Amino acid sequence: MITIFTDGSSRGNPGPGGWGSVVIDDGKVAELGGGEKNTTNNRMELMAAVKGLEHIPKGSVATVFTDSSYVINGITKWIHGWRRNDWQTKAKEDVLNKDLWMELSEETSTREVKWKYVGGHVGILGNERCDHIATAFADGRDVKLYKGSLAGYDLPDILDVSFDELKAKSKKSDSSRSRAKAYSYISVVGGVIEVHHSWAECEKRVKGVRGARFKKSISAEDEAMILEEFSTI
Prior knowledge:
alpha+beta, 27% strand, globular
């Protein structure tokens, strides 16, 4: 079984960004990374997953650990509708980050991939290392990428992932989200999506409307993920 950790980062949305992947296969480790001058966090998260899978042979069985709900939801849920609709949303617009989603779709079609969510910055060694690589490239800093044996790696316990700890932190994160200040509110009524700057605007649109849906976003990246989710409705 091959294990892949991935992460992405950007300094602005858009802005300078970077991605990092760590691939552990048969006692060997390969660190991968790169950057772009003008990109988004979601694109870097996708790039990390694409590059990590590209690194392993076709026909491989792998588990990918990522802290990006955007990547996991997209590749396990939304992508089925995108493929049927020729990579367009129900509004007949190209799926955001279509090029990378198509690449990820291709890589997963020739490999057996299991996706696992890990909380960001909770002490998971693989995630922390990928974050270090991604932010270094985003900031234009030098980073030495390791390729060699797991025994000689600075993080020999990288495969030790505590799921009980992750679940506990995930629940805490969910609670923090509900209390977090809103970045925006997104509603969808009759297939039409709108972004609102206040709850009052959103409530006015959805209150009493059958089938209406809405969500609060807490960041620009979160808003982008919700827009992608609602575009599949």
